[in-house]
Amino acid sequence: MACILKRKAIIVLGFVTAFLLLIIARLTNEVSFPLIFSCFGQTSAKWMPFYTQRQPLRTHYGYMNVRTQEPLQLDCDLCAIISNSGQMSEQKVGFEIDQSSCIWRMNNAPTKGYEEDVGKRTTVRVVSHTSVPLLLKNPEYFFKETNSTVYVIWGPFRNMRKDGSGIVYNMLKKTVDSYPGAKIYVTTEQRMSYCDEVFKKETGKDRIQSGSYLSTGWFTLILAMDACYRIHVYGMINDTYCKSEGFRKVPYHYYEPGRDECDEYFLHENAPYGGHRFITEKKVFADWAKRRTITFTHPNWTLS
Ligand SMILES: *[C@@H]1O[C@H](CO)[C@@H](O)[C@H](O)[C@H]1NC(C)=O
Ligand SMILES: *[C@@H]1O[C@H](CO)[C@@H](O)[C@H](O)[C@H]1NC(C)=O
Ligand SMILES: *[C@@H]1O[C@H](CO)[C@@H](O)[C@H](O)[C@H]1NC(C)=O
Predict the structure, then answer these.
(1) Rg of the Cα trace of the chain?
(2) Whose CA is nearest to atom 8 of ligand 1?
(3) What's the 91 CA to ligand 2 centre distance in angstroms?
(4) How many domains does the chain have?
(5) Domain for residue 49, yes or no?
(6) Does ligand 3 lie within 6 Å of residue 299's CB atom?
(7) How remote is the CA of residue 181 from the centroid of ligand 1, in Å?
(8) Which of 45, 122, 137 is closest to 79 using CA atoms?
């Protein structure tokens, strides 16, 4: 009798121990230490749970999957962010870009036909709500052929609401119904406010009162700073570029002829309403680059 009891106790204890171990494993798995280890910058220095080789993914609660409503998981060592600027033409850095752990592009920037300059791979594509119709012109390409890409769509609440009256959200919902493999995320309303708050904190200006919109580059850098240990930005000009001597005159986008980049920047910076404050944003980026591991090249920024 005593023997049976003892055996029962051992079995129960075994279960309890296994259960506790499971909980501990689960907890440690959710915890990463990006702040401590970002100083080392190397993947090998990253903390790994002892029982698995899987990298702890970072969870980004400001971005929700349209199909599953789950938050975005993304964790990269070196991120390459490729600007859409005409500066990317004839840079021949495609090979270098493709060596990065994660490659970020914006809106409908193509790779086909521009591989030598901008690379082939796309890990994350950050897209403005106004550019969603451009992707939907070629859904087979964006949401089937390149279905390993994560799409992050930013937009104001009126377009992104989930109650049936958010027109952009509705388009995305239809898209994931047709392409179940597509990984499409939308920014939450709280995350949109957070991005506005960062703008106010960094510039002292209220985004709405100053009559401007944040750019896709702004949303891209904010997410990348949370998801990447190191960032290399290609093809973005700095805040004084358009006033510097002998600057390279290029189209606004590398993939289409059109207005000159600097003309576009001045137009937006001075628009009383509805513009992007590209130049102001670049000043803020330069500040961030001084405090974090962010490099800007093609053209090079010098940061002291
Ligand atoms: C991605 O697309 C390929 C074909 O283009 C398909 O074989 C694969 O199943 C898709 N992945 C998912 C997760 O749907
Ligand atoms: C820009 O920076 C890259 C990488 O740091 C360097 O290889 C290149 O020589 C620089 N280009 C110019 C024009 O300074
Ligand atoms: C900004 O770009 C211009 C033109 O490339 C360059 O001369 C200048 O040194 C850059 N300034 C900073 C702070 O990076």
Answers:
(1) 23
(2) 181
(3) 12
(4) 1
(5) no
(6) yes
(7) 6
(8) 122
Q: Looking at residue 93, which CATH number applies to its domain?
A: 3.90.1480.20
Q: Is the residue at 42 inside a domain?
A: no
What pTM was computed for the model? Answer: 0.82
* Ligand 3 atom showing the smallest separation from residue 296 Cα: 14
Q: Is residue 40 part of a domain?
A: no
SS3 state at 223: helix
- Nearest protein Cα to ligand 2, atom 13: 300
What domain range is 138 assigned to? 57-297
Tokens representing 6 are: 């003892």
Residue nearest to atom 13 of ligand 3 (CA): 302
Tell me if 133 is assigned to some domain.
yes
Mean of pLDDT over the chain? 86
Cα separation, 251 vs 144, in Å, equals 30
| pLDDT digits 0-9 by tens, 117-167 | 999 999 999 999 999 999 999 999 999 999 999 999 999 999 999 999 999
Q: What is the pLDDT of residues 61-72, one digit of tens each?
A: 999 999 999 999
Q: Where are the beta strands (DSSP E) in the chain?
A: 59-65, 71-73, 76-82, 102-106, 124-128, 150-154, 183-187, 212-213, 228-234, 251-253, 256-260, 275-276, 294-297
CB atoms within 10 A of CB 193: 12
**85, amino acid identity:** S
